[in-house]
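Issue 218. Parser rejects a valid record. Input:
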Amino acid sequence: MGFRSDHVLTDAAAVTPSDTTAVDFYGLFVGGAGDVAVTMAGGGVVTLKGVAAGVLLQNLRVVRVMATNTTATNIVGLKA
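Output the parser choked on:
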């Protein structure tokens, strides 16, 4: 299922970065500045560098928030 513009974010969960735990988020809120390493639904692995505190990363389909290379803190995963 891909992201649709009529999706409403209906739930949220605190994120504990893990290199093995699968998640299903449509966005991330980053409370403490740093890098966020993620695996995308399509299989791509990327580190979002220098994310500022208080940023809402929208329109992402994230299936893993990696512990390796994630330095940001207070991350919240947003669910549709």
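Fixed in the parser; the record now loads. The mean pLDDT is 93.
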